[in-house]
Amino acid sequence: MRLLLVILACLAAMLAAAGAQDDDRARAIEQAAAELAAIREDVARDATEDAAALEERLRALRDASRARLEPVQREIARVESDLNALGPAPGEGEPAEAPALSEQREALNRELAALRAQEVRINANIVQATELLGEISARRIGALYGRVLERERSLVSPALWAEAFAGARASAGRIGAYIADWSARKAEGEKLAPALLIIFAALLVSVLMFGPVKRWVSDSFSSRIERFEPTPARRVIVAGLNMLATAGPGIVGGLIVLEALRAQGLIAAAGADIARETWFALVALLLVNGFVSGLLRARRPEWRIAPALEDRGRKAASYVVAIVAVFGVKSVLEEIAFATGAGGAIERVLDGTSAAAIGALLFLLSRGSLWRAGAAGPDSESDATEAPPAGDVAEEDAGARDGWLPVRRAARLVAVVAAAAPFFGYIAFADFVTSRFYYLALMLAVAWFARALLRETAVWAFGRMQTRGARVRPAEKDRSAFDVFWARAAIDIVFLLALVPFVLVLAGLPWSSVRDIVWQAFFGFQIGGVRIPSVAKILFAVALFLAVLGLTRLLQRGLARGPFRHSGLDVGVQESLTTLLGYAGFIAALLIGVTALGFNLANLAIIAGALSVGIGFGLQSVVNNFVSGLILLFERPIKAGDWIITSSGEGTVKKISVRSTEIETFDRSSIIIPNSELISQSVTNWTHKNKIGRVTVPVGVSYSSDPELVRDILLKCAREHPNVLRYPEPFVVWKDFGASSLDFEIRAYIRDIGMGLSVRTDLRFAIFRALKEAGVEIPFPQRDLHIKTMPGTAPLGAQGQPAAAKPDSPGAGPPAPKGEPDLAEDD
After folding, report:
1. Helix (H, G, I), strand (E, B), or coil: what is residue 190?
2. Which of 253, 151, 152 has its CA nearest to residue 199?
């Protein structure tokens, strides 16, 4: 009794705690809803000042709501499980259930209703927070583009340049004062000379690293690879090595100089940003220089990734490096102006002049004469003899063979806008366009190189997976090419998806908003009452499907190489079992993947009904062939390796697939036969149960031969052949008295009917030799020719004498015409 009371008290305490927890959660949900309503009112009245802080607040509310949603969903699943355990409620006319059971059912239904209301409210809070975040992000983007498109003073304004020069003098004075102060402090402690020596040594080391390191990489790796044939993979590797050889010393040397300056106290808090920006600009310049060296101006023309002539490749590379250098110098000077408090006019001038310079360089870089195959630039050698057509007409004529024409036109448009906008007062817009173009080009260059490296790595990996030193069958080559294609396609899709967030950031979206977009795309979102599956769930389902399918393939290979190989089963039986295992694994993988995706398997009945209608109308033959294929695999009237004869042809069964069966003829051609034909029509299978078969060799001898001697010779030849079985024994059949010979047949059973042609050939050689040695003649057909009439003579009588003509006698025919003898053949 006491134990029962204790149990009831514990249950009551647990229920009370659960109720208190539900009350706290309900209050938190209502509090979040009220806070979101207040934020929506502020956003509607445009009463928000700090958009970034408001976004963080909304994200905190949304994350807290997501954290509350999962426990509610677990409790809903628990309550539904309890209701299912109670069974359905009694229907009308059925006896009522027990009062305790009825009370428990009502309590569970009330709890379920409350939990579902909480779930709906939490989802509403999540959706509302997401909508507010999107609205705030849209306003921030609108404000950004409003500032960018705002017109200001032109780049040729004298007042702008006067303010810029004044700011530059002030900035130079502050820098000079800072260096003088640093020198004075070092001189007081007699540390100026060692400090200068350390800085000079760091600079010297960073400069000297370029030559030896680049030469070592070239001698150790690039030169050795360039001895071989320039394949696409080797070109990418050489370009990557050149880029690393050029940028690596700069990265290391820059770090050495930065640490030396920091150790000597020359870089303070304000100067650290300047040094860091300088280092970034140098690294970008070196990376791009190394990249375009492999792309356009490799030491040997055949090792360039992009086809270009020597002079045009060097010009294009110089334009690209100049663009990076201009942008890097502008970034460093702007950082210096900001650190010294002399911004404003200096930044406007730097933005406008760099945009105009980058626009001019980009225009030169996008010229058709620099990239179009066969075109001669204005400074090429062929310009003196044959100049290219001017204007858009020449470009339109070459458009069909110039695949980069749209890209070059877009770049030319950007170049014109960037170069002209600063002179009309749109300096911010020109700087926005050029900076986004610069970062986008850098990002695409890095992504292109990484993509090319991964694609060639995939080609190399699939090539290594093939049997080394063995002859690769054409089917395996096709399969490898198929795998390489899909591997490259997957790499392209991954890089494309990875670039989308960066492109959105460059377009002006805040990183926090881009992160929300990626989160929603990856973890799913809801449109109205429809829940779009998350990319994460889809990828997980696909991964499960591929994993189960891969395990099935491994199991098939393991069984084929292990138990099946040593089991003594027929090869066709092994193929049938392996194929059935593959079908079962595919179905299991599909069901597991669909279940992981969240699809209710109970709905398969609806899908099966829809499919049955489709099958009844248009898929009868497909399903017929599929079912016939299963019958072939289970019943095994034919199997892989069998020699069969059908109405479509004769050959060896190579593969029984879902829809059809492949037969390879003895001429090495393939016949694809629908499985239903093999089930519904008669098929001759020479190797159904076993490979034992009978061969027959007909032999004709002259009438003067001894038949018993002939029989002994034929049996001896058959018994001496190694492939002829002793049981059943070979035997001789005296088939007939032929017109010119005595016709015999030697019939013998051989181990493998597939060797029947060679066995028959061997027996013919042996029989011919044996009969010749025994003096038995093999005759040829003979005919006796009897001439009844000759031209100009009377018919011959019985003894060959001319007979008297009796034209009036009954039955006498007309005389034969001259020149046409009446001949009769007697065999």
Report:
1. coil
2. 253
Whole-angstrom distance, CA of residue 714 vs CA of residue 719: 9
Query: Rounded CA gap, 328 and 319, in Å?
Result: 14
Q: Looking at residue 823, what is its pLDDT?
A: 36
Q: How far apart are CA 361 and CA 298, in angstroms?
A: 22
* Spacing of C-alpha 637 from chain mean position: 39
In eight-state DSSP terms, residue 613 is H
Angle (CA) 79-81-84 rounded to 5° is: 110
Domain 693-774 annotated CATH 3.40.50.300: no
Burial of 618 (0-12, 13-18, 19+ CB in 10 A): exposed
CA end-to-end distance (rounded Å), the chain = 122
Q: How confident is the model at residue 554 (pLDDT cuts 50, 70, 90)?
A: confident
Residue with the larger pLDDT of the pair 473 and 516: 516
Q: How is the chain split into domains, by residue range?
A: 22-87+104-148, 158-376+402-466, 535-599, 612-688, 693-774
By CB neighbour count within 10 A (0-12 exposed, 13-18 middle, 19+ buried), where does 211 fall? exposed
Class of domain 612-688: mainly beta
| DSSP annotation of 531 | E
Least confident span in 237-241, 578-582, 803-807: 803-807
Cα 453 from Cα 439, distance rounded (Å): 21
For residue range 722-751, what is the model confidence (pLDDT) as tens digits? 999 988 899 999 999 988 899 999 999 998
Residue 660: what are its φ and ψ, rounded to 5°? -145, 175
